[in-house]
Amino acid sequence: MNRDTTMTKALWPSQTLARDGVLIVGASILVAIAAQVSIGQPVPISLQTLAILIVGFSLGANRGAAALMLYLGYGAAGLPVFANGMNGVAFVGPTAGFLVGFVGMAWAAGWAAERGIARGFFGTAIAALIISALLYVPGVAWPMGVAGAMGIEAGWVGLSADRIWAGFVAPFLLGDAIKAVLAALIVSGGWSLIRRRG
After folding, report:
1. Which residues have a Cβ under 8 Å from the Cβ of 59 and sit 6 or more positions away?
2. Is 59 within a domain?
3. CB of 114 closer than 8 Å to CB of 6
4. Beta bridge partners of 45
5. Choice among 66-75, 95-104, 155-164 with the minimum mean pLDDT
6. In Å, how far from its chain's centre is CA 7?
7. Where are the bilayer-spanning segments (predicted)?
8. Most buried of 6, 69, 101, 109 (most Cβ within 10 A)?
């Protein structure tokens, strides 16, 4: 089996446009469902980013990014697919940077998979941790300044670094680590099944 492949390519070596379409739509629906599953209080953590990591690791960079663009399109069209049943209104809310960053997150996970980095447990876990950390770049940039530069006026725009840390980063770090481990277990388990099968 080639080292530079994804799970879907390993399962279906000959790709077709129809199969790609089904995989992309299915992956976008998986993310929409995972976004509605929240765990914990007072700041609930959804399974959305876990699903995004799995989508990218399984489908590869381009198909993973396409699935997330389709997912964002559902929300832009008014469907309540984002966390807590939100829709396109979230594109001007405090988490808009994370939403946009989801496309890059799926692409990065797919890139790691295509290079054989995300196949075993440890490689996948490390890749998932790094990719999850990179999601904070657009996620934090949005409330710290991008939203204000775009003319959005709200109480969360232009917050100080310590308030951004307390509200947008710190509550999610443990959840990100747990989701990275879960993604690694699922992906490495998937590869084990594929190896046994073939």
Report:
1. 6, 8, 23, 24, 27, 67, 106, 110
2. yes
3. yes
4. 39
5. 155-164
6. 17
7. 21-39, 45-61, 66-83, 89-109, 121-144, 164-194
8. 109
- Can the peptide bond before residue 13 be classed as cis, meaning omega within 30 degrees of 0? no
Distances in Å between the Cα of 48 and the Cα atoms of 68, 82, 115, 146, 183 are: 11, 9, 24, 23, 12
Of the pLDDT bands very low, low, confident and very high (cuts 50, 70, 90), residue 68 is: very high
State which H helix or E strand residue 66 sits in: helix 61-76
Cα 177 to chain centroid, rounded: 14
Considering its fold, how many domains does the chain have in total?
1
Helix (H, G, I), strand (E, B) or coil at 86: strand
The CATH number covering residue 74 comes to 1.10.1760.20
Instruction: State the amino acid at position 26 in one-letter form.
Output: G
Q: Which domain holds residue 16?
A: 7-197
Residue recorded with tokens 């381009």: 62
Instruction: Write down the pTM of the prediction.
Output: 0.93
